[in-house]
Each structure stands twice: as C-alpha cells, then as structure tokens.
Amino acid sequence: MAAKSMAESNYVADLMAEVREKNPAQPEFHQAVQEVAESIAPVLESHPEYRKKKIFERMIEPERVVMFRVTWQDDHGEVRVNRGYRVQMNSAIGPYKGGLRFHPSVYLGVLKFLAFEQVFKNSLTTLPMGGGKGGSDFDPKGKSDDEVMRFCQSFMTELSRHIGADTDVPAGDIGVGGREIGFLFGQYRRLRNEFTGVLTGKGTSWGGSMIRPEATGYGCVYFASEMLAARKGSLQGKTCLVSGSGNVAQYTIEKLIQLDAKVVTVSDSDGYIYDERGFDRDRLAFLMDLKNNRRGRIQEYATKFPTAVYTARNGGVDHNPLWTHEADCAFPSATENEINGKDAENLTRGGVKLVAEGANMPCTPEAVDVFHNSGVLFAPGKAANAGGVAVSGLEMAQNSSRLAWTRDEVDNRLRQIMKSVHNTCMKASEQYKRTDNYVDGANIGGFLKVADAMMDQGLV
Predict the structure, then answer these.
(1) Average of pLDDT values for 40-46?
(2) How far is CA 361 from each of CA 33, 51, 55, 149, 424, rounded to the nearest angstrom?
(3) What is the pLDDT of residue 6?
(4) Alpha-carbon distance 16 to 37, whole Å?
(5) Average pLDDT for residues 413-440, to the nearest whole number?
(6) Residue that is last in its domain, among 374, 390, 414
(7) Quick check: 1 pLDDT over 50?
C-alpha cells in the first residue's frame, strides 16, 4: 500500500475528530467513514475543488433521518412498542436505495454506517441509485406470521410517508425476507392505492425480478471469480469457507458448487458446522429447507449428515474457530466485524489467498490490514456484495418499463455488472497508485461518480 502524505494524514485525523464529536457512540459509522476517508485522501489532494466544496463532508451527513414509533399487538393481546428508522443518505445519482433490517441490534449508528456504505456500493453498480438504509429493533425470530404482519403493517403506515418509486426504494436485509416484503408492500398498496415499484425483493408474480434472492451471493462469487481471472486463476477446485446460513450464504454456496468449488463450513448465531466432504446440491437443499422453511438451527445439519462436525459458539474466546480450517478462499456472509485480527491471522495461516465479503463490513480494520500485509486478495463488501442492490436496480428498471426479464437475462446482466464493478476498482486503485488494493479502488471509484454529480448540482 502506498504511504500516505503528511497532508493526507492530517486531513483524515481532523475529519475523524469532527465526525466522532458530532456522532458520539456510533463506532460502526466512525469505522466506515475512516476507511473511506483514508482511501480517498489522495483524490482530495489531486482535486482541491472537492475539498473547497466540502464534498466528502456533505456525503458524511445524511440528507434526512426519519425516526418513528411502531406500535403493534402480539398474539396475546399485549401492546408492543418498537422504534423504526429510515436514513436517507445521498440522492445525487438517483433515488435512495437500500435495505430494511429488523433485528434487536438496530440503532441509528448501525443504519448510518450501512446507509453510508450503500452510497458507494450503489455508485459502483453503474445504475442510477442513491444510498439509504432503514429498519427497526423488532426481532421477527420467534414471532408468528400474524405478529410479523401486524408489525410490518404498522411500520409501513409511517414509512409510506417518506418513500416512493422515484424517491426512496427500500429492500430486504437481515430479518426482512420475502414474507416481510410482502406484508410491507401490501400495506403500502392499501394506503396509497397504487401498484408501484416502491420495494424490491418482491415475489415474481407481483413485480419481483428473477435472481433477486440469489443476487448478493451470486454477485460475490462472480466478483471473486473476476479477481482470480485477472490473475489467470479460477474457483474450480478451490476449498472455501463460508459463514452465515441466510440468503447470502446459501446462494454463495450454490454458485460456488456450480463453479466446481468445495464449500466446507456454514454457521448461525449458535455455532458452525465443518463438513469435510463439502456441500453438494442435496446438502444445500437440506440447509435451505432448514433455514427458510423450518427456521431451525444449524446443529440439525450435523445430525442429518454424519460427516459434519458441529461446534457451538463460545463467546469467551478471542477468535472464531470457523476461520481456523485450511482453505483457499473465505466468504464471510454473516454480519459486520465477524473477522477480527486474530481470525485473519488464522485464515492466512490456513492457506487462504482470497477473502470476499458477502456481508456488510464483516472484517475489522485490523483484519483488513493483516490481509493486505500478507498478500491476500481482499474484496470489500461495497464491491463484492453489490450484486444484491444491482439486481434490485434491475427490478426497478423492469417495474418502470412494465416488463419481466428471463432468469438468464437477469443473471447475465448481473455478471456483467460485477465485472464492471471489478474493473472500476482495478482502474481506480491503479490510477491513484494503490494497485491490488480493492478497498481503496472501491472507495475511490464509488466516490468519484457521486462527487461529480454533487459538484454539478450545486449546494443542495
């Protein structure tokens, strides 16, 4: 990595002091801003017009934050109260676009971090989409379908005032799958008396796109494949570690199987399984049924398949043993900061040469430093997992034109978008002498498009 000049270091230090003062107790947001600031510092040195107009300072500040009460009634007649949010971060290149997360860990700092990341990710896709994120501290786990429906209807009753097909188009995220999107869309349609593409991730019979559930996982694998292809390699025959067992992990595994790679791990919040034999289509089908239909725990996989070994989560250790297994590639697909510096050292020790983030910022800054210093190819989430929002953008395009594209057409467009994202990262990193640094390449490439749009549109 190229050494930073004194001016660049001073700029980042002064900026971060101001960010921490204005946004206290939001460590995820601070981490995301600092990473981008360090990447784009040479761009700001080369383009004083961006500094003069305070383009990056304006990107850090959300255009709008909506916070609201969500009141609903459970199956026992008890009144419950949750908090809802929508962070509308930046709309310089298109309507706000980003998911809704329903999880007890949701608070304003997490959503600002996710919305900020979304701005750069959406810019990289080549599609006209701004960045946003929203959600609630509601936990759908253990709730009945009727309880989830009542919550979603109450949540959308307020959110509907702030979104629209040309204003802000939410999608799913952790805790918000097809069931929740259906309830949210139905309530929006009832309230507004219109059928419009206000949400993505819809069912294919009512405006959804083919490949949307698969898109983030498929896109992450496509990006990793491009990284290897640029170095005359491929995923064929590679042993891969995957964390998580939700939508992203499932379709990462599916695409890796299709490309003749071998996946040996999968996890949930209780623990992980290591299956030395590797996943095949039958084992993946069992996992999908377990998680998507029966909503069971990953330990059941080890009961079904004797070759798999289950390890319960141990919060008392300083590393995740999932990342200690020997492999060629790793695809962290669970949640933010799941790989720390110790985990990264274990991965490099185990022979991993490529890490592609399927989740949003699953690697800590210390982990990223380990990868860069060890020569590991590292794909940051804002580039590697851009496939999900890319196909959301394609769903928006289909809704606007009242057309539905075939599965192959959407998949081909997704692959081309991920190839374009990879090329943008490569060119940007080379232009600013950060060769092979995909973190800097993604941040610089995403920043330039939004920055130029903001310069053209004046002080708004």
Answers:
(1) 96
(2) 12, 27, 23, 30, 20
(3) 76
(4) 9
(5) 96
(6) 374
(7) no
